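Lab notebook page, bench 4
Experiment: in silico fold of construct C2
Operator: M.H.
Input chain length: 385 residues
Purpose: comparison with the prior construct
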Amino acid sequence: MRYLPLILKNCWRNRRRTTLTILSIGVSMCLLGVLIALFHAFYLADPPADQALRLVVRNKVSLTVPFPLAYREPIQHIPGVREVMISNWFGGVYRDNRDPKNMFARFAVEPEKLFTIYPEFQMPEDQKKEFIRDRTGCVIGHDLVKDFNFKVGDKIHIVGDIYPGDFEFTIRGIFTSPRASGVLYFNKEYVDQSIPEGRRGQIGMFDILIDKPENSSRVAEAVDATFHNSTAQTKTESEQAFVVGFLALIGNVKVFLIAISAAVMFTILLVSANTMAMSVRERVREVGVLKTLGFTPGNILFLILGEACAISIAGGLIGYLISTVLMKGVANSPFGGFLPSFQMFDASVALVCIATAAAIGLMSSLVPALGASRVSIVEALRSTD
């Protein structure tokens, strides 16, 4: 720590270069922070307590292939299952689908079970009763209120595609949720009355509420085993796994995130290495003076490595703070409701970002620092660079 003031002073000898380097590292670390936060949320983070109690059942072939409604009764009798709710993806067009803002999740559900399955949804009791009473009623998340200025009693007109027809819903309630809530729920009976009789016995998904998180795997295996020999086999998974599986439709997201992160790290490593090489080359004579004053090769090495790490850590910290703002924007985007839960500030993600920045600083300066520490006093003082 005795050399810390000297390290910090050396960082600001060329303020313009240092500032540009910190900004370059900050932008790169910002992108890396977003990618790490997404990777952590998708594949490493534990689900919230309420989410850990929910399973999703769909057709094993694909989410787009329906399966019989009659499966509900056997599932309901599996030990550990508390409630089973029909949940059909509705799709449809609100206003104009060319505007991403108009694309929000819409589900046809059983109103009397919705708030049992999702206890984290908070809404006044009178609004819940109105939603259950009105067959054409719907409830929306608070995020939709912010986006469209909806209020209770407003009409929402949606043109169906999966379920053809023109549907008008009356907002009967607005719920709040700790997660992104840009979603609309309505009574499935309203849609069932408009589709052919043959389609009414088919559904898209079941949402299952179980008694304990530790029973999740057992219940999922029991559900799938029950219909293993059926013509429509099922795939049962946790809600978090289901959301991640949604992303698999666009490709191998895990490989994509890792590949982009590696490219970002390699690019910023080159930028930082070039900066440190220039900085060391300009100070060869000063290295000779320091050695004349009694600084050992180890001291020289430590000073240069410390300078590079200080600059990189500053850039990494700035980049991470910016990435938290971007992640908040991602969470509030039209597709935020399809993402797993994640914290705006995650200590583990921050630690990875800052540690990565420090490692980049260390690796980028190691070769020039070793060269400077090994140069002789005579050779350093003769330098004209």
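Observations: Residues 297-331 form the longest helix (35 residues). The first strand starts at residue 54 and ends at 59.
Next step: discuss at group meeting.
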